[in-house]
UniProtKB/TrEMBL annotation:
Top-level taxon of the source organism: Bacteria
GO cellular component: cytoplasm
CDD domains xrefs: AKR_AKR13C1_2 (cd19078)
GO molecular function: oxidoreductase activity
UniProt name for this protein: Aldo/keto reductase
PANTHER family hit by this protein: AFLATOXIN B1 ALDEHYDE REDUCTASE, ALDO-KETO REDUCTASE
UniProt source species: Phocaeicola barnesiae
Keyword list, A-Z: Oxidoreductase
Start and end residues of each NADP-dependent oxidoreductase domain: 16-317
Length: 330
């Protein structure tokens, strides 16, 4: 595994992180904790040291399942890993609806409750990287940043970041308490956040790319016959996994396959290497429940694309038709 600095605040992480949400939430029935604990141990052995979760990644029966899973699985190697989790979304337990609706809550007292809950579930006395999960229109970002500053002084949080934030919020937050990372959806199919690259570079903030394989489509492991359970797997409703999307994305998948054959790599590895070679401060966090995918994703860090090759890929992506993609289709 290769490693890189996430921004310029001193946080060094594996070049490929592991998004852990899908072990508990959104990608079918929750995975078996014993099997995932074994997988997480193998990830650490492989050199992964950057693990992403959130307090709301869970199930109706256990809304905090994912943090509990990581807390148990990583406690033996806690000083060797970087755990990122998130605050600012909470379950509306009084709604009477199941699954519980999510509502934004970045009030200082809400953040305080969240951090104590996450520390307990993660079985640790500090959180390496703590994100505001989504902007809260009711709370000025300066107030959020001030609370983060206090938590950092107290040693409960080491670094902090924002997810799905605007340039204005990034600048205002950073002016109060310097940000280490911004987490956004980013892939060959979801490039709108490239508009933030200049401000991230200017302020020395890293980008953590979630859904870097467009929820798995760019792995080239699926086709029009692929089936996802509508009751437990969000991909059943995602535009890029509808039967007609494969025709719309044929040119994209052919491009990735061609580059993969040229580089003796897989389509997933090319999709990850493209962003790794774009900027030295981008860290993708693909998720998986499978050892072979974990190994495959790690191998992307060893693939080199030249600046000219990245530019040619970008130009091709600009010009080609694509289906919609979950989480930001304009």
């Amino acid at each position: 595994m290769n490693y890189r600095n996430l921004g310029n605040r001193g946080l060094r992480v594996s070049a490929i992180g592991l998004g852990c949400m899908g072990m508990s939430h959104a990608y079918g029935a929750p995975a078996d904790h014993r099997e995932m604990t074994e997988l997480l141990a193998k990830a650490v052995d492989m050199g992964y040291d950057f693990f992403d979760t959130a307090e709301v990644y869970g199930t109706p029966d256990n809304p905090h399942d994912n943090e509990e899973l990581l807390g148990n699985a990583l406690k033996a190697c806690r000083n060797k890993v970087v755990i990122a989790t998130k605050f600012g979304l909470r379950f509306d337990m009084e709604s009477g609806q199941v699954p519980y609706p999510l509502i934004t809550d970045s009030r200082p007292e809400g953040i305080r409750r969240s951090v104590e809950g996450s520390l307990r579930r993660l079985q640790t006395n500090y959180i390496d990287l703590y994100y505001q999960h989504r902007p809260d229109p009711q709370i000025p970002i300066e107030e959020v940043a001030g609370t983060m500053q206090d938590l950092i002084k107290e040693g409960k949080v080491l670094y902090w970041g924002l997810s799905e934030a605007s340039e204005e919020d990034i600048r205002r937050a950073n002016a109060v308490c310097p940000l280490t990372a911004v987490q956004d959806r980013y892939s060959m199919m979801a490039r709108w956040h490239e508009a933030l690259f200049p401000v991230l570079e200017e302020l020395g903030i890293g980008l953590v790319a979630f859904s870097p394989l467009a929820n798995g489509l760019l792995s080239d492991r699926y086709n029009a016959a692929s089936h996802f359970d509508a009751g437990s797997d969000y991909r059943a409703g995602m535009p890029q996994f509808q039967p007609d999307s494969y025709d719309k994305n044929r040119e994209l998948l052919q491009l990735i396959r061609y580059i993969a054959s040229e580089k003796n790599a897989t389509p997933a590895q090319i999709s990850l290497a493209w962003m790794l070679c774009k900027k030295p401060w981008i860290v993708p966090i693909p998720g998986t429940r499978r050892l072979d995918r974990l190994q495959e994703n790690a191998g992307a860090a060893d693939i080199t694309l030249s600046e000219e090759e990245v530019k040619q890929i970008d130009q091709a992506l600009d010009a080609m038709p694509m289906s919609g993609v979950f989480g930001g289709t304009k």
